[in-house]
From TrEMBL:
Reaction catalysis annotation: N(6)-carboxybiotinyl-L-lysyl-[protein] + acetyl-CoA = N(6)-biotinyl-L-lysyl-[protein] + malonyl-CoA
Gene this protein is translated from: accD
Subcellular location: Cytoplasm
Limits of the CoA carboxyltransferase N-terminal domain: 25-283
The organism's place on the tree of life at top rank: Bacteria
GO biological process per UniProt: fatty acid biosynthetic process; malonyl-CoA biosynthetic process
The EC number(s) this enzyme carries: 2.1.3.15
Subunit structure: Acetyl-CoA carboxylase is a heterohexamer composed of biotin carboxyl carrier protein (AccB), biotin carboxylase (AccC) and two subunits each of ACCase subunit alpha (AccA) and ACCase subunit beta (AccD).
Name under which the protein is recorded: Acetyl-coenzyme A carboxylase carboxyl transferase subunit beta
Length: 283
């Protein structure tokens, strides 16, 4: 009897399926390298609960965080990127676009539209790092330029949130670089018409985006620890052969040198933006 029980117990043990940890339940913070519960990070608007590091945040979550619930009206959803140069690097550009669209569920790296922040109507544009590092191609530039023009027509504050670590998109060549001037010109017309423009810089904001609309705000905010600049740190060091400060190209460094107006924690952005709009647009 004991032998039968032992065999049965051994059989049940071998048949029992081991329960592993579900994939994606945990994640490692890029800064402090702590293993943290992914759901907690998302609930904290993609901020590490251990070191307060601000991770990149999807555009749709940005909209949820900044705007009043159910008020966002998205514009220019029919714009699609193409491959005008037939560009090929590791893979053809048209194939890369398809892969990015399938991965992110977005047609390109920018989302624009109209919404309300604590009851205040605004025009909002966001670039998403998840789509080709938020780089600015023809579609991104066109959507941002149209958003600025509509903000002027509607006489509304214009808010751009930059998550463009890729700068201008090299796969579109001069057509991408032209977007720097086009968006800047639309913002200049908005300014000439008496419009207010607020830019929020997040990690990372680099290249042609940093050299154009990202640093042209009437008020420029940045999240803590964001990397902001034109060329990368290694490129600059190898070019000018100078020792750069440890905090070079961070939002803290830019605030110290007068490039931005304020550093705001992500959880406080909505309140601060509403307060700034009231202060800067009141008659």
């Amino acid at each position: 009897m004991e032998q039968v029980t032992a065999v049965r117990s051994e059989s049940m043990t071998s048949e029992r399926v081991k329960r592993g940890v579900p994939e994606g339940l945990w994640m490692r913070c890029p800064q402090c390298h702590a293993t943290v519960f992914r759901k907690e990070v998302v609930l904290r608007w993609y901020v590490c609960p251990e070191c307060d590091y601000h991770l990149t945040m999807p555009a749709r979550d940005r909209i949820t965080q900044l705007l009043d619930e159910g008020t966002f009206e998205e514009w220019d959803t029919d714009l699609r990127p193409c491959d005008p140069l037939g560009f090929v690097d590791r893979i053809p550009y048209h194939q890369r676009l398809t892969e990015e669209q399938q991965k992110t569920g977005m047609w390109d790296a920018a989302v624009t539209g109209k919404g309300f922040i604590r009851g205040r109507p605004v025009v909002l544009g966001i670039t998403d790092f998840a789509f080709m590092a938020g780089s600015m191609g023809s579609v991104v530039g066109e959507k941002l330029a149209r958003a600025a023009e509509r903000a002027t027509e509607l006489r509304l504050p214009l808010i751009f949130v930059s998550g463009s670590g890729g700068g201008a998109r090299m796969q579109e060549g001069i057509l991408s670089l032209m977007q720097m001037a086009k968006v800047s010109a639309a913002i200049a017309r908005h300014d000439s018409a008496g419009g207010f423009y607020l830019c929020i810089l997040t990690h990372p904001t680099m290249g042609g985006v940093a050299a154009s609309w990202a640093l042209q705000g009437d008020i420029t905010l940045a999240e803590p620890g964001a990397m902001i600049g034109f060329a990368g740190r290694r490129t600059i060091a190898n070019t000018v052969r100078l020792e750069l400060p440890d905090n070079f190209q961070t939002s803290e460094f830019l605030l110290q040198h007068g490039f931005i107006d304020r550093i705001v924690h992500r959880k406080d952005l909505r309140t601060e933006v509403a307060r700034i709009i009231d202060y800067c647009t009141s008659p």
